[in-house]
Amino acid sequence: MPADIEVRHLHKKYGDNVAVADVSFTVEQGEIFGILGPNGAGKTTTVECVEGLRRPDGGEIRVLGLDPQHDRAELTQRLGVQLQDGQLPDRMTVGEALRLYRSFYREPADPQALMDALGLAAKHRTRYADLSGGQKQRLSIALALIGNPKVAVLDELTTGLDPQARRDTWSLIQDVRARGVTILLVTHFMEEAERLCDRVAVIDRGRVAAVDSPTGLTERVQDGQRIRFRPSVPFEDALLTDLPDVTGLTRQNDLVVVTGTENALNAITSVLARNNIVAQHLRVDQPSLEDAFVALTGNHPAAGADAAPGTSDASPAARS
Ligand SMILES: Nc1ncnc2c1ncn2[C@@H]1O[C@H](COP(=O)(O)OP(=O)(O)OP(=O)(O)O)[C@@H](O)[C@H]1O
Ligand SMILES: [Mg+2]
């Protein structure tokens, strides 16, 4: 069975500015595939090419076997799209927006069920202008799913949502996938990628830095374990740095931070015990997806995660 989304050597420029240099990935049927990357990395440009909203300058894209440029009308029926900062007319109510979007599709979903799942039922008579940022975001997710799509492309799915709404949205997306829908999502949230995505592409400066499962990406970080504790009595560094499983030791006042292989913890605790040293407040940190992201891109993800929708320099008004 061919992949639901195939992107090969995508290249896209805005004037002289190369937004996407060379991006390739495939998304299999029923997969939740994430795109992670720093601000300006080319994530939105990539998914807009997948959606047929932008014409690539090079490379090839197939979605459900269709060319997003040539077969746009047919693809629209099968593709659900959530724009990073989509706008609706201020006076349109939630219910009107859902009914309008519903009318575009041959086999739409039930608007009431979607409003219930997204906590919008009480807001169906509220005008777009009077919704909070998080409610607008929930509506944009509902509009992406109203056509009962085979493939949904979601750009910054949960940016601006409160923690409970974020969790509710994750379980909605898992339900949608359980019905066989393929999902491509752009996110800045490591936890979202870890919980939802089968595989993740890390995109940096218009190129794919890595594609792997969240666990696979994390395992690429060579750091191993990081162990912190406060020793009950002072000791010489060599006591631990002589151990083959220990790769480094630093001290922050009376706190000792040791890095090492996955066997380091056992080795350290036995040596300390033999020397009658108690390791107080012992903590072990495993490498996280965030560590992998930082190692791959040299960027800290928090900067993007805190950005409100609409702070991007790429406004939808300028898009064509
Ligand atoms: N309409 C546009 N006209 C000109 N340049 C653009 C346009 N949209 C995006 N760009 C540029 O292309 C590059 C990639 O932008 P893109 O929106 O794809 O990034 P992104 O990875 O989605 O970033 P973010 O995390 O901030 O949403 C940036 O340098 C951006 O300034
Ligand atoms: Mg973007």
UniProtKB/TrEMBL annotation:
Q: What domain of life?
A: Bacteria
- Which SMART domains does its entry note? AAA (SM00382)
Which CDD domains does this entry report, sorted A to Z? ABC_DR_subfamily_A (cd03230)
Q: Which organism is it from?
A: Actinacidiphila reveromycinica
KW DNA damage (keyword) present: no
- Its GO CC terms? plasma membrane
Supply the EC number(s): 7.6.2.2
InterPro entries documented for this protein: AAA+_ATPase, ABC_transporter-like_ATP-bd, ABC_transporter-like_CS, ABC_transporter_ATP-binding, P-loop_NTPase
Protein name stated in the entry = ABC-type xenobiotic transporter
- The segment(s) forming the ABC transporter domain are 5-230
The entry's keywords: Antibiotic resistance, ATP-binding, Cell membrane, Membrane, Nucleotide-binding, Translocase, Transport
Molecular function per GO:
ABC-type xenobiotic transporter activity; ATP binding; ATP hydrolysis activity
